Amino acid sequence: MSRTFLEAVALRRSYYRLGSNAVTDDNHIVTTIDKLLATMPSPFNVQSTRIVMLFGEEHRALWNIVVEVLRDFVVPDKFAATEKRVDDAFRSGRGTLLFYEDSSTLEALKRKYPLYADKVDVWSEQCSGMHQFAAWTALEDMGYGASLQHYNPLIDEKVVHRWEIDSKWRLVAQMPFGKPMDAPSSRVQTSPPAERMRVIGL
Fold first, then answer.
1. How many domains does the chain divide into?
2. Mean per-residue pLDDT for 104-108?
3. From start to end of 106-158, where are the E strands?
4. What are residue 164's DSSP bridge partners?
5. What's the confidence (pLDDT) of residue 188?
6. How many CA atoms lie within 13 A of 177 on its CB side?
7. Which are the contacts of 111, defined by CB distance < 8 A and separation ≥ 6?
8. Which domain CATH number covers 52?
9. Calpha distance 58→114 (Å, rounded)
10. Cβ distance 175 to 135 under 8 Å?
11. Residue 6 and residue 18: Cα distance in Å, rounded?
12. For residue 201, is it within any domain?
């Protein structure tokens, strides 16, 4: 779509009703994520972010795992509503991006730069956040709706087993995406942007 960067950022929202129909070719998503991994900044160029892309039955298998795990934590009379939310907002979509951080890479960075070792985990979260934001905005620009979920660490073990994920990869977030089936809620500013910004020297 022919949007400016700021337009794409402004339109990026959380969508909680997703459809499975393709909005663009799935390979375009793969190519885009590949480019993001090649260009996103990381501390000392450590490139610790890992992304697993699930489509079709593999995508649905992830959310089946979520439902299976939640069954042990949600009281029985509330479980039907929980499963319906997973169905409508996540499992019904086109795919899911799993965001990981490679612990072995980060540990090597700590050893290489011991002066900054206590900062590496914070930088790792920031690095992952940049990848999440970029991917979310890119999906929005393609015409997809998405949201950011955090069912880790509850699902970690089952996900590792299902897809043979490297044990050194730490799951950070899940991003289900699909064709938007409704409009997102209105954006709410809890405080005006001007109150959260200072301009000095202009």
1. 1
2. 98
3. 145-146
4. none
5. 84
6. 28
7. 117
8. 3.40.109.10
9. 40
10. yes
11. 24
12. no
Q: Please, are residues 176 and 88 in contact by the beta-carbon 8 Å criterion?
A: no
- Residue 27, domain member (yes or no): yes
b/e 145-168 (16+ beta carbons within 10 angstroms → b): bbbbbebbeebbebbeeeeebeee
Could you tell me the residue range of the domain that residue 40 belongs to? 5-196
Q: Calculate what percentage of the chain has a pLDDT beyond 90.
A: 92
Question: 86-97: per-residue pLDDT in tens?
Answer: 999 999 999 999
How many whole angstroms separate alpha carbon 151 and alpha carbon 129? 16
Q: What is the pLDDT of residue 32?
A: 97
SS3 breakdown of the chain: % helix, strand, coil, rounded to 5? 50, 15, 30
Quote the CA–CA distance of 89 and 17 in Å, as a whole number: 5
Neighbours of 83 (CB within 10 A): 17
The answer to whether the CB of 102 falls within 8 A of the CB of 166 is yes
DSSP character at residue 128? H
Q: How many CA atoms lie within 13 A of 174 on its CB side?
A: 24
Q: Which helix (H) or strand (E) holds 170?
A: strand 169-180
Lookup result for tokens 């979520």: 66
> For 29-168, where are the E strands, in sequence order?
49-55, 95-102, 145-146
